[in-house]
Specification:
Blueprint: E1 2-5, H1 12-20, E2 28-33, H2 40-50, E3 56-61, H3 67-78, E4 84-88, E5 92-93, H4 97-106, E6 112-120, E7 126-131, H5 134-138, H6 142-147, E8 158-159, H7 162-165, H8 177-187, E9 191-202, H9 216-244, H10 249-269, H11 273-278, H12 283-298, H13 301-314
Parallel strand pairs: 1-2, 1-4, 2-3, 6-9
Antiparallel strand pairs: 4-8, 5-9, 6-7, 6-8
Helix pairs in contact: 1-2, 8-9, 9-10, 10-12
Length: 315
């Protein structure tokens, strides 16, 4: 079980204690901190020193901040087991989580095992909502998965180390594990699901925190970050598809088209006059430019606050 944390001082103790409470044996638990500045690592260090249970505990602190993707890639070098249970530093694993995931993994050795999750708010109170992406994943063909920005809940996952060994490390500093690893598993039809919640998934903290901008400049910067993430995701999926499913020309061509669109949009956000000029001679690029202008309009503070409020009411 890999507890992966960065500046999560308010949540990390509950996360670590839930890892220590796992019923599965033998279990190696790695507490890994990405050079936090808020005391997160000191809490992990104290809890490890106090622990007297059956599990093997290892501590890791990156000497410099690697960022999410760099830290994610390091998981596979630090872990030695046949299955890696991912535990983000703001969520809480049920005590039977490792045992249930391993049971689902044991027979067919899929690349990825995932479960449902209980949603909880930032204060740690359960909302009464169980989230599951399984029905959506079952109905999604590979072309739809290739362009989807929402596959599964990464915080619910366990990974077979082959998911890195076969494809290589994740590239692009703005990628997310779920956007890449679910697609890899779906390409090879090597994914398993445990139809019960095994994680209390914290909304409004960490990567799931809604982004509120204070001015238009911040809104544009956030839009650029989102666009860079899309570029990184499509590039990685395209590379992975060439490795695992080179015969799927339809998926490869679709990814190439989406990547070109997002790369053009990114060049606009980076202030390329040449890119704006190109829109005068291409209907497709003009549509991208107009779409981007509309997205920037929605990034104004008043509109952002309304969108976040609607999302909060939905949750």
């Amino acid at each position: 079980m890999f507890v992966m944390a960065y500046n999560q001082v308010d949540f990390i103790e509950a996360t670590v204690r839930s890892a220590f409470a796992q019923t599965y044996e033998p279990l190696e638990i790695i507490l890994s901190d990405d050079n936090s500045t808020d005391g997160t690592y000191e809490i992990m260090e104290r809890l490890a020193a106090e622990y007297q249970g059956p599990h093997q505990i290892r501590l890791n602190q990156n000497q410099e901040n690697l960022g999410f993707v760099g830290h994610l890639n390091s998981v596979f070098d630090l872990c030695h087991g046949v299955l890696i249970v991912y535990a983000p530093g703001d969520d809480i694993s049920h005590s039977d989580r490792a045992a249930e995931l391993y049971q689902a993994f044991y027979q067919d050795r899929p690349l990825l095992v995932h479960s449902d999750v209980n949603n909880m708010n930032q204060q740690g109170n359960l909302t009464g909502v169980v989230s599951s992406r399984q029905s959506d994943l079952e109905s999604m063909d590979l072309k739809a998965a290739a362009v989807s920005s929402s596959l599964g809940v990464g915080a619910s996952c366990a990974w077979n180390p082959e998911i890195r060994d076969r494809f290589g490390p994740v590239e692009g500093k703005d990628n997310f594990d779920d956007l890449i690893f679910f697609f890899r598993a779906m390409m090879l039809d090597r994914m398993a699901h445990v139809p019960k919640p095994l994680v209390n998934y914290r909304l409004g903290a960490g990567l799931s925190r809604p982004k509120v901008t204070n001015n238009l400049k911040e809104g544009i910067a956030q839009e650029r970050k989102n666009c860079q993430r899309a570029v990184d995701t499509y590039r990685q999926r395209l590379k992975d598809c060439h490795i695992a499913r080179p015969e799927r020309y339809d998926v490869i061509q679709l990814l190439e088209k989406r990547l070109a669109t997002k790369e053009y949009m990114l060049s606009l956000l980076e202030g390329s006059f040449r890119s704006v000029y190109q829109a005068a001679f291409s209907m497709q690029k003009l549509k991208v430019l107009l779409s981007l202008l509309n997205r920037i309009r929605k990034a104004t503070p008043d509109r952002q606050k309304k969108r976040v409020q609607r999302a909060s009411n939905t949750v």
